[in-house]
Write a structure and sequence with these properties.
347 residues, alpha/beta, Rossmann fold, seven-stranded parallel sheet, three-stranded mixed sheet, 14 strands, binds uridine-5'-diphosphate-4-deoxy-4-fluoro-alpha-D-galactose
Length: 347
């Protein structure tokens, strides 16, 4: 019988792609999502894409008793934990909401999972835990020093997991995956990034300009110490990212780690500037996009680039898709989402 894997936040952008990758690898995903940032229709689209019916619980991870009941009914050998709030600006304005949901929710979830027998835990972390460092590329041995409450919650969740799995008698092993900049969509165009609120990230903002929902793209600073002066990031295709989660799970379930807790970067190691991303979209669209120059965005760094070697060595995983695929797939998904009216009104 296929191993059941609990996926919190399984209806979200990264979660939905993980669910597909899990099915392809022969696992049986059990989704938990409180729908705080996901549409109900994702479930139908996941069923269409995978050709199988999905198990999904409408549950908040802070509901410890609900998780206990769920895990009794659905014994899971692995957990992929993605459910969290993720907006940096909002975390500065409402820190307690972030600590409660992200950190409090993780404590409740990890406790319930360990109490149910434990297993392989893959945790969705972020390059944001490195804060504003002057090292390129970033490797996992660098200090964790986030510079905003959202990043603090990710660092704390890593610590909670690390301490729990290192405790005497612990029954789980943990792996934190530090994502750089996820982008793109599944090439079926059935799932993709679909922010309920105003997006803050470059890819969905460019898409909004391309479809006419936003007049122009504001480039946040052109005076960085980078080749063209605009911010440089390590964009990683969401399907590559999802496959890394499956590899991580397989490595943990196979007992492949000598230590109970490991943190790994997920990036490509290839730098792209804001201007290069915009040019890639313009090439895909065959037209230019209106851009204006704005001031630097507070908290932004010039360059954020992963050293991806540890994930390659320890998981046998490297990203396969480049910027062109991210742009093509993001644009194909945007076309489908608009055709279904997803971006006209909430479903
Ligand atoms: N950018 C613009 N204009 C926009 C939006 C973004 O010029 O309208 C630029 C940014 O200044 C940056 C680049 O595009 O140079 C990428 O910005 P994103 O907002 O897409 O991504 P960030 O690297 O800022 O954010 C990511 C994650 C966050 C995480 C943060 C810090 O999305 O979750 O890295 O590690 F907190």
């Amino acid at each position: 019988m296929a191993d059941k894997i609990l996926v919190t936040g399984g209806l979200g952008y990264i979660g939905s792609h993980c669910v597909v990758a899990l099915c392809e690898a022969g696992f049986e995903p059990v989704i938990v999502d409180n729908h705080s940032n996901a549409r109900a229709s994702v479930l139908e689209r996941l069923e269409r894409l995978t050709g199988r019916s999905m198990t999904c619980y409408d549950l908040d991870i802070r509901n410890r008793a609900g998780l206990e009941t769920l895990l009794q009914r659905e014994p899971c050998s692995g957990l992929i934990h993605l459910a969290a709030f993720k907006a940096v600006g909002e975390s500065v304005a409402r820190p307690l909401v972030y600590y409660d949901n992200n950190v409090g929710g993780s404590v409740s979830l990890f406790d319930a999972f360990e109490a149910a027998g434990g297993g392989a835990i893959v945790f969705s972390s972020s390059a944001t835990v490195y804060g504003e460092v002057n090292a390129e590329p970033l490797h996992e041995a660098l200090p964790v020093q986030p510079n905003n409450p959202y990043g603090q919650t990710k660092a704390m969740m890593e610590q909670v997991l690390a301490d729990m799995v290192r405790a005497p008698g612990a029954r789980s092993q943990g792996l934190a995956l530090r994502y750089f900049n996820p982008a793109g969509a599944h090439d079926s165009a059935l799932i993709g990034e679909d922010p309920k609120d105003q997006p803050n990230n470059l890819f969905p903002i460019i898409v909004q300009v391309a479809v006419g929902q936003r007049e122009s793209l504001t480039i946040f600073g052109e005076d960085y110490d980078t080749p063209d002066g605009t911010g440089v990031r390590d964009y990683i295709h969401v399907v590559d990212l999802a496959q890394a989660h499956v590899k991580a799970l397989q490595a943990l379930l196979g007992g492949g780690f000598e230590v109970p807790f490991t943190a790994l970067n997920l990036g490509t190691g290839t730098p792209y500037s804001v201007r290069e991303v915009v040019s890639a979209f313009e090439a895909e669209l065959g037209r230019s996009l209106l851009q204006t120059l704005g001031p630097r965005r507070p908290g932004d760094v010039a360059t954020l680039l992963a050293d991806p070697r540890a994930a390659a060595e320890q998981l046998g995983w490297t990203a396969e898709r480049g910027l062109e695929a991210m742009v093509t797939d993001a644009w194909r998904w945007a076309g489908a989402a608009r055709q279904w009216g997803l971006w006209d009104e909430d479903d």
